[in-house]
Amino acid sequence: MPKTRWLLLTILAIVLLGVFVFGARLVHIPLGGFFNLQNSVKTWTRAVFQAQNLSQELQNFKSQINALTSENARLQELEQENLTLRQTLQFVEKEKYPIVVARVITRLTENGTPFLLINRGKEQGIMLDAPVLADGVLIGKVIKTQQNSSMVIPLIGSGVKTAAAFTGNAKTSGVVEGELNVSLMMRLIPKDVTVVQGLSVITSGLELRIPRGLLIGTVAAVAANPQELFQTATLQLPVALDEISLVSVITQSAP
């Protein structure tokens, strides 16, 4: 009997030990997977936060670049305006013209004809038909004035005419006229006047408020027909109208 009991106890102990070992393995497997899953979640969460931080830093960097680009553009514009003002002052000092410096507020187009609106008018001494210059070059005439603004029609406007001459020629040599609102033609040039490419065209001084000697442009091409009494020249413009931001207006005829 004692031997039988001892044998049974031994068998029971072995069975219990087997159950314990097997159970421990069953518990170990899901616990290991749980810990692995927890580590994966932590890694993914950390990556998400890092991505968000990088995205925010990138956005801040882009904002800084945009701000610097805007500031650089503003400084370049101020530098260009300062250069224009210096050139204007040099022109005034040289020619002794009384002028008013004005800013181009906006550009308008009516029936295909371009116009400039400037921020100076009657209170600043601007009158009708006053010549408007950019970089010392005649680019238009005042056609309408208000207290603190004026309307300017460019010389390229169709039908706008200006008495002109060539440098070195004391006489009026023709009439500069706007062509299709984009270019300038000089017409009624006498046949006895020698016209070559690159010759400068200036105002002749025959118009009431426009003094002699203002640069209009240079000869780009000449058309001379033996059957006609006059020559015609196409002019090259020294300044681009759409790039003008500051102009100077002569407030009275030169002394």
Helix content, binned percent: 25-40%
Q: Would you identify the regions where 5 or more consecutive residues have pLDDT less than 50? A: none
Measure the end-to-end span. 147 Å
Strand content: 25-35%
**H/I helix tally:** 1
Mean pLDDT: 80
H/E element string?
HEEEEEEEEEEEE
Which sequence of strands runs across the widest sheet? 1-2-5-4-3-12
The main sheet comes to: 6 strands, antiparallel, barrel
Structure report:
The chain has 255 residues and is an alpha+beta fold. It is 37% helix and 32% strand. The strands form two sheets. Strands 1-2-5-4-3-12 form a six-stranded antiparallel barrel. Strands 6-7-8-11-10-9 form a six-stranded antiparallel barrel. It starts with a helix and ends in a 5-residue tail after the last strand. The relative contact order is 0.13. The mean pLDDT is 80.
Using brief descriptors, characterize the structure shown.
255 residues; alpha+beta; 6-stranded antiparallel β-barrel; 6-stranded antiparallel beta barrel; 1 helix
Blueprint (SSEs and pairs):
Layout: H1 2-95, E1 99-110, E2 113-118, E3 131-134, E4 137-145, E5 150-154, E6 161-166, E7 174-179, E8 183-190, E9 200-203, E10 215-224, E11 230-236, E12 246-250
Antiparallel strand pairs: 1-2, 1-12, 2-5, 3-4, 3-12, 4-5, 6-7, 6-9, 7-8, 8-11, 9-10, 10-11
Summarize the structure.
With 255 residues, this protein is an alpha+beta fold.
